[in-house]
């Protein structure tokens, strides 16, 4: 029996992974912000209620998992939420940056001791590796001057690319890191979007999106047979070279320094 922690475990691919791992007999911790959705996962999954867009919420999630188990075999990171307008968290951070990028850094770092206790650990970060659109706005990470939903999503996606590089440089010899882009998938919560956008996404999903089960299959594979390399990047089944400009080690180190300051780390 493996111990699996899943952020964003109550919707879309995260939910599918949680249910799939529980059906295999694994112990599953699903982190989410909606208790009702957590209850619908069923008794075989341990729901961890936390607002991962906040520093305190991430600390609480790490503490809850740490109190419940001495070892974690896999951490799968899915949590994300679209925001049409700029929303600032209680920590003064732009919400997409905080949830889609920073929570993944905090959970990875916070659970590293438990992952290191596993014989075959792995972290799988499900984002948009292989995409070259978007950039880190180094002089305005919180997008205070020119916010856009797509811009915020792309920036956080590129930040996750660099997160994988930074983590692998520090922990990769003992704790492999996978960046995985599943492509357009019929998953996620679009309830916050305008009605025309929801309809367009629904139609596009029927025509072009991959089924959740197909997209999540690779995550199962990464958990069952973790790569030996410190960092693996896969875009829709295609192994990517780590020389991509979006995986630049100097940029990864720069972002790590800035992020440590934002989260009050020493």
The span between the termini is: 36 Å
How much helix is in the residues? 40-55%
Class inferred from helices and paired strands: alpha/beta
Biggest pleated-sheet summary? 8 strands, mixed
List the topology elements:
Layout: E1 3-7, H1 12-23, E2 27-32, H2 35-39, E3 45-49, H3 55-68, E4 74-77, H4 95-110, H5 112-116, E5 122-126, H6 149-171, E6 177-181, H7 195-208, H8 212-224, E7 231-235, E8 238-239, H9 249-262
Parallel strand pairs: 1-2, 1-4, 2-3, 4-5, 5-6, 6-7
Antiparallel strand pairs: 7-8
Helix pairs in contact: 1-8, 3-4, 4-6, 6-9
Main attributes?
8 strands, 266 residues, 8-stranded mixed beta sheet, alpha/beta, single chain
Describe this structure in words.
The protein has an eight-stranded mixed beta sheet with strand order 3-2-1-4-5-6-7-8, sandwiched between helices. With 266 residues, the protein is an alpha/beta fold. The termini are far apart. The radius of gyration is 17 Å and the shape is globular. 44% of the residues lie in helices and 14% in strands. Helix 2 (35-39) links the parallel strand 2 (27-32) and strand 3. Helix 1 (12-23) crosses helix 8 (212-224) and helix 6 packs across helix 9 (249-262). The protein contains nine helices and eight strands.
């Amino acid at each position: 029996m493996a111990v699996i922690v899943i952020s964003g475990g109550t919707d879309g691919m995260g939910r599918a992974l949680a249910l799939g791992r529980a059906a295999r007999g694994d112990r599953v911790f699903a982190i989410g912000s909606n208790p009702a959705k957590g209850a619908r996962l069923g008794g075989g999954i341990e729901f961890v209620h936390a607002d991962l867009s906040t520093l305190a919420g991430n600390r609480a999630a790490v503490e809850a998992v740490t109190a419940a188990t001495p070892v974690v075999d896999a951490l799968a990171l899915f949590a994300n939420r679209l925001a049409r307008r700029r929303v600032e968290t209680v920590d003064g951070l732009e919400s997409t940056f905080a949830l889609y990028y920073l929570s993944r850094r905090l959970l990875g770092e916070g659970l590293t001791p438990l992952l290191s206790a596993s014989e075959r650990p792995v972290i799988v970060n499900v984002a948009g590796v292989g995409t070259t659109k978007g950039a880190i706005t180094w002089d305005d990470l919180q997008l205070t001057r020119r916010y856009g939903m797509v811009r915020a999503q792309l920036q956080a996606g590129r930040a996750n690319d660099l997160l994988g590089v930074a983590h692998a440089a520090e922990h990769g010899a003992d704790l492999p890191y996978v960046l995985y882009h599943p492509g357009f998938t019929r998953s996620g919560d679009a309830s916050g979007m305008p009605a025309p956008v929801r309809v367009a996404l629904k139609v596009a999903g029927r025509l072009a999106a991959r089924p959740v089960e197909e997209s999540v299959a690779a995550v199962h594979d990464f958990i069952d047979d973790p790569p030996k390399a410190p960092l693996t990047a896969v875009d829709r089944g295609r192994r990517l070279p780590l020389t991509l400009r979006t995986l630049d080690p100097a940029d990864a180190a720069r972002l790590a320094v800035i992020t440590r300051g934002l989260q009050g780390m020493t």
